[in-house]
Amino acid sequence: MTDRTLHLPVAAQPSVDSLVNLAVLGEEYGYERAWLPETWGRDAVTVLTSMAHETEEIGLGPSILNIYSRSPALLAQTATTLQEVADGRMRFGIGPSGPAVIEGWHGADFERPLRRTREYLEIMRTVMAGETLNYDGDVFSLAGFRLRCDPPEEPVPIDAAGMGPKSVELAGRFADGWHAIVFTPDGLRERLEDLERGIELGDRDPEDVRTTLSITACALEDGERARRLARQHLAFYVGAMGTYYRESLSRQGYEQEANEIAAAWASGDQERACSLISDDLLDDLGAVGTPEHAREQLRKFEEIDGLDAVAVSFPRGATTDELESTIEALAPDV
């Protein structure tokens, strides 16, 4: 059975409390986990700490923390501390993000993202196991320290985000799970083959690698409003967030649409960029419209073999009331 989780809004919210309230609402409606993104707004660690204090059962985790702005040892310390605060409910998502954020916001060189991801996974596990850190990698050479506090009683699983074949293969080979975003059903099935290849290369049990797909979702009685919000959101990702989403969409059979969306956005014609997302493409990428239609589209993804969880994500322009309505409409038991 596919779990249903929340991927809390990437857009700025009124306050930390407003994000905490969404996690509390998710717990009330039976969602398995609340994932919190971190981009260039509030930091995820502080908000997750607040969520841990105000919830009791729902799983929590960042998706994603990038692998350039914090050292691997610091991320391991953070995971250890959050696991203590949350009484064992944490699961971590890490990944490279993209050059626009890493270079333009953090001022770091976006170099060797795949190798760096692998080394983060290996170093974080060593630290969280309470072992002395002696690591000689291509990116990091570390020695002589070990975690000063007790390691987590329950190890914190670490998932890796990725969109391309090699990054997904890496997740299968080294991570505890894969986080996917902006995928059609057919595109996801193709990347799941890369995940399976990584699992085989790592000589691992497929049951030990969990796949989570974040799906743009908006379920409103005003279905056209929901679809308009989703078009704006997806056009922004394809047009304004570097090349990763455009390239991923191209690999999934929408090369012409992806290039035209990006070109329209780059020329300043955001309205045209949104209009280029057809109804078919919108339904292929998300679960948006009236509650009935959104639930139908969400079930289409949940039926994909090899997918363990769908994460209900939200358009950037949705209001608090629209977020809450979508959480209620797409709750696991509805």
From TrEMBL:
This is TIGR04024 family LLM class F420-dependent oxidoreductase. Pfam families: Bac_luciferase. Keywords: Oxidoreductase. The keyword RNA-binding does not apply. SUPFAM superfamilies: Bacterial luciferase-like (SSF51679). Residues 11-303 form the Luciferase-like domain. CDD domains: Tetrahydromethanopterin_reductase. Gene3D superfamilies: Luciferase-like domain. It comes from Natribaculum luteum. PANTHER family: 5,10-METHYLENETETRAHYDROMETHANOPTERIN REDUCTASE (PTHR43244:SF1), PTHR43244. InterPro entries: F420-G6PD/mer, F420_NP1902A, Luciferase-like_dom, Luciferase-like_sf. GO terms for molecular function: oxidoreductase activity.
